[in-house]
Structures are given as structure tokens and as C-alpha cells.
UniProtKB/TrEMBL annotation:
Basic and acidic residues bias (residue ranges): 32-48, 108-121, 242-252, 271-292, 706-717
Span(s) of short sequence motif Q motif: 328-356
Cellular compartment(s): Nucleus, Nucleolus
Species the sequence originates in: Cladosporium halotolerans
Protein name: ATP-dependent RNA helicase
Length: 951
């Protein structure tokens, strides 16, 4: 009994096969037939074993050379050996000679012949055969399953061999089920056999096929047979090996797949190579182990709080700043040659910082040195300037203004208006303007209350005549109506009364002018000046009363010392000016161009002449409520800052000071100014201390002979202490207590007065005279000798100034020639022409505090504040009368015990004052006994003069 493990017998579970009823099942076999069959089987088995041996040998050879999986599969597939009976000699002529059963053989031969015939008839379709071959190749990879199934046919063949021989075409169901696998097996077997020069292959169902001639003898239907034949045909073709094809050639059949595979592999390799080195080889990041404690959170660092709120518009908080040390020549500013030459003639060669900043801003667009291009007139900014006292603001605004006025043809209209707070300043500014306008047809006028109002009117307005009968008749009719009132009880009387009420000085003037001229002619008024420098009070007067006076054509409006003008209001002059500038021009006020364009209907708002506004001060206000009244357009703030002050400020700069700077603006003290303060106790000996200061510190070095003599006298005087006087201290306290409005009202009343000729004091004419030819200030005046002292003493009021003047003259009669007063009532000031070597001592009120540049044509060397100023701004302006335009100067301030706290806090340590050096405190002597006696004597004389009885 053969061992079971030698041969795999598939389970009988091949249900369809097992269950399928054999259509042509043989009838129960006879015992002889059984024997015969057994014998045949044993013979077959022998032949099979023999064939197997041979095959195994062949397979080993095949395996060595095999590369393609299909081939391997095929060769590995168990092969069903052909059955070759040993006993029966095969008929070489017969295709089925190996079949021992003659009957069977005949039958097979018969069927083979039949099949061959049919094949001959239809012809072998080579293409189909190739397709079948390809199909076999495709199936080859599943050779492992084929291997498994390949044994089945063998076993089935054993079980159902005969039944299969008689199988009919009705077994299609069973065959279909196995077709796929068996076809592959058959094909593989066929190929195998061909390769091994075998000619006989067993069918999957055990039938024997003779493929020697490429014929298929089977009981299968013709279709299947043909397919098998095709496969055999294909198999007959020389194999790759036989043809000598290399494995590479074979692989070409799989080029597409292989290409894809190669590409994918290359891509993966590339990606791997591109990975960053550390990613590839870097060590694994260390995992930080933590317990359950909360993660540390970012610390919210406390930030320093800086308040950003500001009620000010950006143009005030972000000004254009320029260093007070910036120097550049006028020639470098690309001004016109004639302008540069003209300035050089006036000894101005270098532009001061404020001039460098302001002149390009204000020059007419398109002119040389202007910052703006032609055609940009409508977007020109109005300018506010904050620059220290004596920094050259006057020329900074007058030069571009005069250049602009010069460039336009004379139209007999007022085109430039400069408003300053005091008549002294009017004179001073007008003198600079005249010097700058020299050589041109420009006319500069002044209006300051100096002289009769009528004379001033005549100087400002030219009166001509124009032929206009209709206007003349209308005018006469009005005059007749006025002079011939209707009866008082008539209806017309009321209208007459109303008309009379509105009859103005202007109308009266016009009527008078008409009556004094030719018939049918009406008077015609034109401006006699192109540029007017005036005080606000006088300006209002002219606007109200002067026939033909109009500012409707003004293109430039300058407010110098603007903060003072804004503070004092001057009877609302700003509103009045604004009304005048914004009202529509009357036909008389229109120029020829405007008239033409209006007549053509082409006049447009864009053509409205706008006024360029410039506001300046050393203590420019940042009070927006005040600045709003100026109605500035696209305002621009220019600030001149001292480098030294900046440094000094940075040392102790605080947020407070920065805030103050932006909110109120810091005030600059000229760096060349030396400030002193003198404590005077209760103030009872203040006049004596002033005398001591003048003698010992001010006039000592440069004092003229007479003063030196006086000093010698003083030296010979006793040095004993004197008893204090009482009268002057009461004066001081009066002035200290006086409210701030007293001085202001004093200024206002003076500015506004329509003075008679009596008001043209010698002081004023002196100022005017000396300012006619302004020149550059220098630190030292020309000549080898140092300048004689020019002293300006500030007092709190006109009375105080007057008393001090008397006292000084009484104490030092030899100084009387040099002492003058500059107050509201100094009509008879005994100001004499002084030689350059004589000192000048001028006692003034705050009216000299603003803008005053020189005294008797000389720069001021010392400012003495006999009475403390009322405000910081007053202090800044007072001390600013000296140390101007880079010259040196000294400022002395006396303060009593009562004023000490205020002075120290508000002036000496003011946070919004930038000074290069702190204020120095100096103690002064009150003189000897003899001087004190004299002082008492002088006081008694003054009392007698005032009260007439010495009480
Ligand atoms: N470019 C210059 N070079 C030299 N000196 C000049 C120049 N410009 C002006 N000055 C002189 O500087 C002095 C002060 O000028 P100005 O009166 O214009 O000063 P200010 O700024 O108006 O002062 P304040 O604020 O006190 O009115 C004047 O004596 C003037 O002649």
C-alpha cells in the first residue's frame, strides 16, 4: 500500500465533480474488466513515475536559469506525467499508439481525425492562439494556486478517468468553473512539454492529448478544442530560452510597470535625501518630564504709563524745530541776488535760525529760495512762530512779505498789514520795513497814535476824483434830504430820523469831499501805502472812520507779539479784522481782474484772494481757544530751540516738563544772557540798592568821567549803615499789589488813543529816529572801546517809574542828563541826545517790555527789574531786551521778601523756561549813612512837591 503522504489526494469535496452525475457512466464493470483496468493503472503509474523522474531532472535545469516569476511558477507546478504503457508497443504511425485499449484508441483516433478535419476547415487563428498564450502568461503568477489545483486533475483522473473520457458537452457547468485554472495549467504544461520536447500532455480531466502535430484530440466541444489548439500552437513557438532571449528582453514586456516602480523608488530616495540632516540623523528631542504643577505663564511686565492725551491739534504738538545754533548765509538760501545784496548793504549776511526756517516758507511760490512750487498759492500754510527774544523774527517775516509785495504791480491798495501791541514797536518795525523796501516803489505807512488822527488819515489815503454824474446826483440828493427834514408830524419823518441815525462820519466826509470838487465828479479813494504797521486800537479807528480805508485787499496779515494781542483783545479787533477780510468786496474794492472775471461770469471762489497769516512771539501761546480766533489755515508751527537749553533740560527732564512743552510751549532765554536776582528785604532800601548796583556793577567799568567822579565821591562817603526810609517801600508795595490789568489797560489806552500832537513825545520820536536804519547786532560794537552802558529799568507802573526817576536824579544829580523815562505820560521826558560814550538810563514800564530792540540807537546792555514782573511771560520779554541777536547782556531782578516765594518758584525754577545757566543770587549794599540821609532828604522834597506841605 502506497503511503498517503507520497501523494496529495485532494478531499472529495470537489463537490460539483463528485456530485455531478456522469452523463455516460459506464455500466457495472465485469471482474475481467476490473483486472484489466488495475493492470493498466499500475502500468500507467509506472510510466508516470518514470516521467516524473525525467521531469524533475529537467526542472532542476530550468530552475537555475529561471528569472521570471511566471516561468518559475510554471516549472514549479506539479506536472502530470504522460501515461506511457510499457507493454504495448506504440505504433509510431498512430497518434494514440500508447493507448493499449484498442477500442479506446480507435475511438480517440477517430475523434482526432475528426477534429483535425474541422481544424483544417476553419484554419488556426494565430492571433487567437497568441491571445490565449498571453492569457496563459497572465495567469502564470497565480501558479501557486495552479500548483495546488494541478494535483487535483491527477487524482480526479484516477477517480474519474473513464468517466471523463465519456464526458459529454453537457458537463459545461463543471468545466466552466475550473476553466480558468486548468487553462493556465494546460498552457503551462504545454509550454513545459514543448520545452522538454514532450509531445503528449494530459488533459486536466485526464484525457490524453497528442500535440505532436499541433492537433487536439478530445471529446471537448469544437470551440474549446480550438482554443486548446491555439494554445498548443503558441506553445510550439520556440520559448524565450530556445530563442536565446535574455531575461532583460523578457522584462521589456513589463517595461511600463517596471518604469513606474523605478520612478517611485527614485522619488522615495530623493525625498529621503532632501530631508534636513538633523531630521534624518538628529537625536530624538528630549521629552521634558513635568509633574502636575501648572505651566509657568509669561510675566506681564508693568509698563510705564505715559499719558498720550492732548487737547492740542497735531500742528501745535509737532512743530518744525530748528536749532538756535544753525547758521547759513543769505546767499546759500538761494535768494535773489538783489535781495542778498540789499541785506548785505544792511550788514545782514548770515541768516539767523528763525530766518532760515521762515523765509523759504513765506516766499512767494516759485520765487528763488521759496519752498513751494508755482501754482500752490491755495495750499500755502499760515505760520505760527515761537522763537526767543532778539532772534530776528522781524526780518524773517518782513523780507518775504516785502519781496512778494514788490513783485506785484502797484494797485494803490493796502496789501500788507502788520499789527504790534505798542507804538514803540510800530516805529521799530516800520523802520525795518522801510529799509528792506528801499529802492522799490513800495510805501510803508504807520498808524500808532503818534500825531493827529486826521494827519494820519491823510497820510494813509489818497483822495482823487472820478467823473460819475449819477453817483454825484445821488450823493447830492442824500445831502439835500439830510439838510431838509420833512415836517415832524408827517409820515416821512420817522424814515428821515432812521436815515439820519445811520449817517456815518465816512458819508459826511465823502459828501464834503464831493462838495469841494468838480460838479458831476465824485471823490475816489485809494490807499497811499502798500504796507501798514499799526497798533490794534488805531487800526479799529481807521476801519471805522477813515474814508477809503479798507483791508479788503490785504494779502498778508502779521501779528507780532501775537500772544499779547490775543490776551488783550483790544476791543475785539481780531473779530473786526476777520469780518473785514471775509466780507465780499464792494465794486470799488475789486481790482481790474476781479471786475473782468465777474463781468464774464467766470469769477469763482477759488479766485478769492486769501490772506496769508503769520503770528509770532517769544512766548507763543498754545492756548487753542485763543489761537482759534486767528482762524489759521493749514497752520504750521516753527520753533527755534537752543542746543544748550536742550542739554540743560535733558539733565532734569521729567514727564512734567515734556507735557508742559507740548501743551504750553517752553520759553527760551537767550543763551548769551546772564541773569541775576537781588533780594531786597522788605524793599525799604531798594532805591539805595539800585544805586549801589548801578554804581558798582553797571556803570563802574565803562562809566564816563562824571560817573567816575561820582564814584569817587561815593567812596569818600561814609560806609556806615543808614537808617531805612519808609516812603519808597510803600510805593513798591503799591506796585507789587497792583493787579495785572493796570499795566495792560495802560498799554491799551495808549495804543487806542487818537493822540493829539502832544502825544508825540520826544521818546517816541527818538525811537523812530534811531530805528530808521537797522543794522546787524554784534556782540561788541565797532571801535576799540567797549560800548557805554545802556540801561533799561523796569518799574511796575508809570507812577513808580516817575518816582524812581526823581529819586535817582535827587540822589545822583550828575546822572540827570542820562536818565529818561519811557511811559505813557513821558511827554516831557528830558531825553537829550547822548554821545556814544555817555551812558543811557531809561526808566520804563512794561510797554517797553515787548519788542524794543534799542535805546537811542544803541543795544541795551543791562536790564534792571526794579519791580518784579507780574508774569513769567513779562519776565521773558523784559530780560529779552538785552542779549539780542547773539550779543551779551545782563538782567537783574529785585525782589522783596513778600515776592521771594513767587519769584523763586515761578521765575527762577520755572519748568517751562529753558535757560543755559541758573539765575545767580547777589546781595547788594544799601550805602552808607550819608547816602541814607540824602535819600531821606530827597524823599521829603518829593513829598513836599506832591502834597505841597511836606506832609
Ligand atoms: N541776520 C541777522 N544778522 C545779524 N543781526 C540780525 C539779523 N537779523 C536781525 N538781526 C538783528 O537782531 C536784532 C533783533 O531782531 P528782532 O527785533 O527782529 O528780534 P525779535 O525776534 O523780533 O525779538 P523780540 O521777540 O524781542 O521782538 C535786531 O537788532 C536786528 O537788527
Amino acid at each position: 500500500m502506497a503511503p498517503l503522504y507520497n501523494r496529495y489526494v485532494p478531499p472529495k469535496a470537489t463537490a460539483p465533480v463528485a456530485a455531478a452525475p456522469a452523463p455516460s457512466a459506464p455500466a457495472p464493470a465485469s471482474p475481467d474488466a476490473d483486472k484489466k483496468r488495475k493492470r493498466e493503472r499500475s502500468e500507467e503509474q509506472k510510466a508516470e513515475r518514470k516521467a516524473k523522474k525525467l521531469r524533475n531532472k529537467d526542472v532542476e535545469e530550468e530552475e537555475d536559469a529561471a528569472a521570471a516569476p511566471a516561468i518559475v511558477a510554471v516549472t514549479e507546478a506539479p506536472v502530470v506525467e504522460p501515461v506511457v504503457p510499457n507493454e504495448i508497443k506504440p505504433n509510431p504511425k498512430s497518434e494514440f499508439a500508447h493507448v493499449t485499449n484498442i477500442k479506446k484508441r480507435h475511438k480517440l483516433e477517430k475523434e482526432a481525425r475528426k477534429a483535425r478535419k474541422e481544424a483544417e476547415k476553419t484554419g488556426v487563428n494565430v492571433g487567437e492562439a497568441q491571445a490565449v498564450s498571453a492569457e496563459a502568461d497572465a495567469v502564470a503568477p497565480s501558479a501557486s494556486s495552479a500548483k495546488h489545483n494541478a494535483t487535483a486533475p491527477g487524482s480526479e483522473g484516477e477517480v474519474d478517468g473513464e468517466g471523463l473520457q465519456d464526458a459529454t458537452a453537457g458537463e459545461t457547468t463543471r468545466r466552466k468553473k475550473r476553466r480558468k485554472d486548468t487553462e493556465a495549467e494546460q498552457t503551462a504544461g504545454a509550454i513545459e512539454e514543448v520545452n522538454g520536447s514532450e509531445s503528449i500532455l494530459p488533459d486536466q480531466d485526464g484525457m490524453v492529448l497528442d500535440v505532436t502535430n499541433g492537433n487536439v484530440a478530445t471529446t471537448e466541444p469544437a470551440k474549446r478544442r480550438h482554443k486548446l489548439e491555439d494554445v498548443l500552437q503558441q506553445a510550439k513557438k520556440p520559448s524565450r530560452k530556445a530563442k536565446g532571449e535574455s531575461e532583460d528582453d523578457h522584462l521589456k514586456n513589463y517595461t511600463g510597470v517596471m518604469d513606474k516602480f523605478q520612478k517611485a523608488r527614485q522619488l522615495a530616495e530623493l525625498k529621503e535625501a532632501e530631508k534636513p540632516q538633523e531630521e534624518k540623523a538628529g537625536p530624538e528631542p528630549e521629552v521634558q518630564k513635568r509633574d502636575l504643577a501648572p505651566f509657568p505663564q509669561p510675566v506681564n511686565e508693568p509698563k510705564e504709563f505715559k499719558p498720550t492725551f492732548s487737547a492740542l491739534p497735531s500742528w501745535l504738538t509737532k512743530p518744525t524745530t530748528i536749532s538756535s545754533e544753525a547758521r547759513v548765509s543769505f546767499a546759500e538760501m538761494e535768494l535773489s541776488e538783489s535781495t542778498v545784496k540789499h541785506l548785505a548793504d544792511l550788514s545782514f549776511r548770515e541768516a539767523l535760525p528763525v530766518q532760515q526756517a521762515l523765509i523759504p516758507l513765506l516766499l512767494q511760490p516759485g520765487t528763488k529760495g521759496s519752498k513751494f512750487l508755482p501754482g500752490t498759492d491755495n495750499v500755502l500754510p499760515d505760520v505760527a512762530v515761537s522763537a526767543a527774544t532778539g532772534s530776528g523774527k522781524t526780518i524773517a517775516y518782513l523780507l518775504p512779505m516785502i519781496e512778494a509785495l514788490k513783485s506785484t504791480t502797484s494797485q494803490e491798495r493796502l496789501r500788507g498789514l502788520v499789527v504790534v501791541p505798542t507804538r514803540e514797536l510800530v516805529m521799530q518795525v516800520a523802520a525795518v520795513a522801510e529799509s528792506l523796501a528801499k529802492g522799490s516803489s513800495l510805501k510803508v505807512g504807520i498808524s500808532s497814535g503818534v500825531g493827529r488822527f486826521k494827519d494820519e488819515q491823510q497820510r494813509l489815503i489818497n483822495t482823487g476824483r472820478k467823473y460819475d454824474p449819477a453817483a454825484y446826483a445821488e450823493l447830492m440828493q442824500k445831502a439835500h434830504r439830510r439838510d431838509n427834514p420833512p415836517p415832524i408830524d408827517s409820515e416821512d419823518f420817522e424814515a428821515y430820523a432812521d436815515e439820519l441815525e445811520q449817517w456815518t462820519d465816512r458819508q459826511e466826509q465823502e459828501l464834503q469831499d464831493a462838495l469841494h470838487r468838480l460838479e458831476d465828479h465824485v471823490p475816489e479813494y485809494t490807499s497811499a501805502v502798500d504796507l501798514l504797521v499799526c497798533t490794534p486800537g488805531r487800526l479799529l479807528e481807521h476801519l471805522g472812520s477813515t474814508l477809503g480805508f479798507s483791508i479788503a485787499s490785504v494779502a498778508w496779515l502779521v501779528l507780532d507779539e501775537a500772544d499779547k494781542l490775543l490776551d488783550q483783545q483790544y476791543d475785539g479787533f481780531l473779530q473786526r479784522v476777520d469780518e473785514e477780510l471775509s466780507r465780499p468786496r464792494t465794486e470799488v474794492e475789486q481790482d481790474a481782474r476781479e471786475k473782468y472775471l465777474r463781468a464774464k461770469g467766470l469769477w469763482d471762489d477759488r479766485f478769492e484772494r486769501r490772506v496769508r497769516k503769520v503770528v509770532l512771539s517769544a512766548t507763543m501761546t498754545r492756548d487753542i481757544s485763543k489761537l482759534t480766533a486767528l482762524k489759521l489755515r493749514r497752520p504750521h508751527l516753527v520753533v527755534v530751540q537752543g542746543a544748550e537749553q536742550k542739554h540743560a533740560r535733558s539733565v532734569d527732564a521729567t514727564n512734567d516738563t515734556e507735557m508742559l512743552d507740548s501743551e504750553t510751549g517752553a520759553f527760551e532765554i537767550p543763551p548769551t544772557l546772564k541773569e541775576y536776582c537781588v533780594p531786597v528785604g522788605d524793599g525799604s532800601e531798594k532805591p539805595l540798592q539800585l544805586l549801589d548796583l548801578l554804581q558798582s556793577r553797571v556803570l563802574a567799568s565803562q562809566a564816563p568821567k562824571s560817573i567816575k567822579e561820582s564814584q569817587a565821591e561815593r567812596a569818600s562817603d561814609s560806609d556806615s549803615d543808614s537808617s531805612s526810609s519808609d516812603s519808597d517801600s510803600s510805593d513798591e508795595s503799591d506796585s507789587d499789589d497792583s493787579d495785572s490789568s493796570s499795566s495792560s489797560s495802560e498799554d491799551v489806552s495808549e495804543d487806542d488813543s487818537d493822540d493829539s500832537e502832544a502825544s508825540s513825545s520826544s521818546d517816541e520820536s527818538e525811537v523812530s529816529k534811531t530805528e530808521k536804519a537797522p543794522t546787524a547786532s554784534h556782540g561788541q560794537e565797532s571801535g576799540s572801546a567797549a560800548p557805554a552802558p545802556t540801561v533799561l529799568i523796569f518799574t511796575a507802573s508809570t507812577e513808580s517809574a516817575s518816582r524812581l526817576s526823581h529819586l535817582l536824579r535827587g540822589l545822583r544829580p550828575d546822572w540827570s542828563a542820562f536818565i529818561t523815562t519811557l511811559t505813557k505820560t513821558t511827554h516831557n521826558a528830558n531825553h537829550r541826545a547822548t554821545k556814544s560814550t555817555d551812558p543811557v538810563i531809561t526808566i520804563a514800564t512794561d510797554r517797553a517790555g515787548r519788542g524794543l530792540d534799542t535805546l537811542s540807537g544803541r543795544r541795551i546792555t543791562h536790564v534792571l527789574q526794579y519791580d518784579v514782573p507780574r508774569a513769567l511771560t513779562a519776565y521773558v520779554h523784559r530780560v529779552g531786551r538785552t542779549a539780542r541777536a547773539g550779543a551779551s547782556g545782563e538782567a537783574w531782578t529785585f525782589y522783596s521778601d513778600r515776592e521771594a516765594r513767587w519769584f523763586v518758584n515761578e521765575i527762577m525754577r520755572a519748568v517751562n523756561v529753558r535757560r543755559s545757566e541758573p539765575v545767580e543770587r547777589v546781595r547788594l549794599q544799601a550805602g552808607g549813612e550819608e547816602l541814607k540821609d540824602k535819600f531821606a532828604e530827597v524823599l521829603a522834597g518829593m513829598r513836599e512837591a506832591v502834597f505841597g506841605g511836606g506832609k
